[in-house]
Design brief:
Radius of gyration: 23 Å
CATH architecture of the largest domain: 3-Layer(aba) Sandwich
Helix content: 25-40%
Number of domains: 2
Order of helices and strands: EEEHEHEHEHEEHEEHEEHHEEEEEEHEE
Strand content: 25-35%
Number of helices: 9
CATH topology of the largest domain: Rossmann fold
Strand order of the largest sheet: 5-4-3-6-7-9-10
Largest sheet: 7 strands, mixed
Number of strands: 20
Structural class: alpha/beta
CATH superfamily of the largest domain: Formyl transferase, N-terminal domain
Length: about 325
């Protein structure tokens, strides 16, 4: 709970993870080390991602059945609740009355600059090379609660795709969590930082099947980062080739060509066997190693110089006007 500009749980006995994460087993091992009991509460769609060897309970809503289960298992005032990739939006009443202010959230990006979801993709689009892992108090406004603890680092050079960033975050969170729990367990209280209201941004979640269409009229650097932002673990950035939808992965910004007119953008200018060279609207080109068809096959070998990638204007408009929303059961229609 928050008191006198500090966050404290006097006699921490339990941690309830709400959501899912690929490093949950490591976090639970840390709890065991500090003699803290661990519980996992998740949503139906996230349940599929949790290791079957980890005991967990699934709920559609944060309703009476959820409250009854948690109340039976733990003493609320001796329990830290951690929202970790949670699909629920926590209301003001349940934050204060049930969780008693002991609810915090794990966020894998700098706040207040990256409030919201799909942080890996947005960070890649922005060319952001500073990694930040943090815990903040949950408030009724998404990602706006006081920051309790954070650790930052430079993103490794080999991190290009969302999957790369997620793997890096999965390592960083272990160190973050152990240091945080140690402070909370030993020192009993943590001073927090209020997020300034006059700076920051909110970025919504993304649906790669709709938001992933490539706008070839944009600059080469933006094109390269956009394609990277929908690379693994997603299907790839989307465009058209010979009237068929294809998915682009493995993009590299390349300055060694001579195309300099925006009319050339999207045109394949050369085939080098394992990759193709694609013109952009400025002095750079994009080297592409994967062009995936609707059947999941890489058709890079069959791409012909002089052909062109293009995206219908209607798909670009839809991509920019569509806002993806997700709930406990997945994508909301």
């Amino acid at each position: 709970m928050i008191k006198n500009n500090t966050f404290t749980i006097k006699n921490l006995k339990n941690v309830v993870f709400i959501g899912e994460h690929e490093s949950l087993k490591d976090l639970i091992n840390i709890n065991d080390k500090f003699k803290i009991k661990s519980f996992i509460v998740t949503s139906p769609i996230q349940k599929k991602k949790i290791d079957k060897n980890l005991k967990h309970k699934s709920f559609n809503k944060l309703d009476k059945s959820f409250i009854d289960y948690v109340s039976k298992e733990v003493e609320i005032n001796k329990t830290l609740f951690i929202s970790i990739k949670s699909r629920w939006i926590f209301k003001k009443d349940i934050i204060k009355k049930f969780f008693q202010g002991n609810l915090i959230n794990y966020h894998p990006a700098r706040l207040p600059y990256y409030r919201g979801g799909a942080t890996s993709s947005w960070r890649i689009m922005n060319g952001d090379k500073i990694d930040c892992q943090l815990f903040h108090v949950v408030s009724e406004k998404v990602d706006e609660g006081p920051i309790l603890y954070f650790e930052k680092s430079i993103v490794p050079k080999n991190c290009k795709t969302p999957l790369d960033l997620e793997k890096y975050s999965s390592i960083q969170i272990i160190k973050l969590y152990e240091n945080f729990i140690k402070i909370l367990k030993v020192k009993k209280k943590i001073s927090f930082l209020k997020q300034p209201s006059y700076i920051g941004h909110y970025f919504p979640r993304l649906n790669s099947k709709i938001n992933g269409w490539i706008d070839w009229s944009t600059s080469s650097s933006n094109l390269s980062r956009f394609i990277d932002s929908f690379d693994e673990p997603y299907q790839g950035a989307i465009t058209m080739y010979k009237s068929k939808k294809v998915f682009i992965k493995g993009a590299h910004l390349h300055g060694g060509e001579i195309s300099k007119h925006d009319y050339m953008s999207g045109m394949i200018s050369r085939h080098d066997g394992e990759w193709i060279t694609v013109c952009t609207s400025d002095e750079n080109s994009i080297l592409i190693s994967e062009v995936i068809d609707g059947k999941g096959k890489n058709i890079i070998k069959s791409i012909k110089p002089g052909d062109r990638f293009y995206t219908p204007t209607s798909e670009i408009i839809k991509s920019r006007s569509y806002r993806a929303k997700y709930g406990p059961k997945g994508l909301l229609k």
